[in-house]
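Review form for a predicted model. The reviewer records the input and the model, then writes brief findings.
Reviewer: anonymous (R2)
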Amino acid sequence: MGLNTTSTLKRAAALIGCSAGWGLMTAAAAISPPESAPAGSRLPYDAGNVVETRLFAEGTVSTADDESNGSFSPDGNEYYFAKSNPYTTSPRWSLLCVTRFRDGKWSEPEVLPFSGRYRDSSPRISPDGKTLFFTSSRPAPGKTARVFRIWSVERTPTGWSEPQALPAPINAGDDDWNFAASATRDGTLYFASTRDGSNHPHIYKSRFAAGHYEEPERLGPAINSEFSESDPFVSPDETLLIFSSAGDGPPSDKDRPETVKGGGVLYPRGDLYGSVRRGGVWSQAVHLEHGVNTFADESAPSLSPDGRYLFFTSERSPFSVPPAHRLKAREIDQMLHATLNGQGNVFFISLDALGLSVGEAR
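Model under review:
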């Protein structure tokens, strides 16, 4: 199994239990790069039209370690992500990091002050930049089950506040997993949950009104299938939803029919899907193309603050079963220690290349 934190959440949750004609659109708040940023030095804003997937911040964010995509601050100068320990045994451990764009490059990642002891993942900044939502298996007050819950911290003049587990009805049920929250401008929260008793996570949304979250609503069959849906990321204006879906794996090997197969990997692997919301209704989710999905696991999508780029996690690598040719010891060693070694990395691509464009889709 790969070491991507969010894909591990997805697979473990299952165990407890584009064509260019899309025309998908989003109206994320436009953020302009500082005029002082030299050409070619800044990602994602000066990357142009990225028609093929690219590694993000190789050597800083994407390394030979296991990284998982998170999100940017609204001004694009901070990037939050998760890094995991290189083990597939349980319990696993992962922490949340931040890197800052300084002097034309991304800084050495720093561990966030409230992370580093438990299994933390899926850092998502609210559109106003004031709240950071994340997933954690840390102990929750009054709870005994060590399940994944959604937590939040608030930005203060002196840094981040102490983490607080979101109250019911978001974190409801001692044994239910709730994870990978993403917020809209009006406070509506999209997240994955196992609360329906199907032994598969599915995507829910909860409106925020009168100072509290309303009872979560499970999204319909245009989004949720009989399989496992997770890692939802919703645009700030709630017009574009990107998420991951994974099948059941052996012995049934059932999956969505368009899922990319091959490579000899036998565990359930996620592919990314997208949907637009028009007239308050989400369209039938479409499988993302242009090299976004591979036979490896893809997960943890997010959008850049200006709405121009899709960021996501992939465990892609040159390894397959059987390999393309007989590998020698030195070649294997080089592959294992390379960035693309089958552990999680962060990639990005232009929404335009996927048939997505900035605009309104009501």
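Findings: The longest strand covers residues 94-102.
Further findings: Residues 33 and 226 are 42 Å apart (CA to CA).
Recommendation: see findings above.
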